[in-house]
Every structure is written in structure tokens, then in C-alpha cells.
Amino acid sequence: MDAKSFRKELRKNQTSAENSFWNLVRANKFLNLKFRRQHTVDKYTVDFHCPRLNLIIELDGSVHQNLGQSLYDEQRDSCLKAKGYHLIRLDNDAVLNYPEVVLEYLKEIIEEGKLLR
């Protein structure tokens, strides 16, 4: 399967947290920012990418607590940060149960971190 087909399949089979987050940010709803979902950045497919801010948002479920997965995540995060990307990891449960809190948290990081240009 090529990368484009893989991304399309991921979008079609997104988790409930990914679907919920996408509904919060799609169509420039959040701070008038454009987000792409299941987007290829460098050699990785990331959950959400905001090109304007060089921001990557990853939603993590229980699989990310697995030692092998957490080591892979650390390596991947280091690689992306070294290339100038800002990376934020959010817990699936927080996105599903406290969406307003998650958006406020992101807004603070973006505004206080001076990511908005």
C-alpha cells in the first residue's frame, strides 16, 4: 500500500478521539488555523498537522504506554523536533471527556509559546 492510500485508510478508520478532535478543529474552527489529519510529515504519518505553526498534535491511547511503542514515540518525536516541528501529545480520554479543556490548553500553548505568527 502506498503512503497516500495508507493515510486515506487511517482517516477512514480513525479512533473516536481522532474523530472528536477533528470535529473540533476542522474547517478552521480553532483559532482560524488549518489542520490536516493523518498527514505525512518527513517520513512519519502524524495524527494532526498545522502547517502554519509547524505544529504536530498526536492523540495517545493505551497502546502508547507499551514500552516498544513509547520508545518509538520518543525517537519519532526527537526526529520531528530536530526538524523544527512543535509537538504536543494529548490523551485520548482528555479529548473525549474534556474537549473544551483540551482546546483551552492548546490555545494557551499556541498563544503563550508565540507559535501564532
Give structural notes.
The protein is α+β, with helices and mostly antiparallel strands. It has a domain at 56-117. The protein is 48% helix and 21% strand. It contains five helices and four strands. The chain has a four-stranded mixed beta sheet with strand order 1-2-3-4, with helices on both faces. A hairpin with a 2-residue loop joins strand 1 (36-41) and strand 2 (44-50). The longest helix has 16 residues, at 67-82. It is globular.
Q: What's the gist of this structure?
A:
This protein has 117 residues and is an alpha+beta fold. Helices cover 48% and strands 21% of the residues. The model has no long low-confidence stretch (mean pLDDT 88).
Q: How many helix segments?
A: 5
Strand order of the largest sheet: 1-2-3-4
Radius of gyration: 14 Å
Give the fraction of residues assigned to helices. 40-55%
What structural class do the secondary elements suggest? Answer: alpha+beta
What is the CA–CA distance across the termini? 37 Å
- Our estimate of the beta-strand percent is 15-25%
Strand elements, count:
4
For the report, how would you describe the main beta sheet? 4 strands, mixed
Low-confidence stretches: none
- Order of helices and strands, N to C? HHEEEHEHH
Q: Name the overall outline.
A: globular
Give the mean pLDDT: 88
Keywords: Endonuclease, Hydrolase, Nuclease
Domain DUF559: 3-109
Protein name: Very-short-patch-repair endonuclease
GO molecular function: endonuclease activity
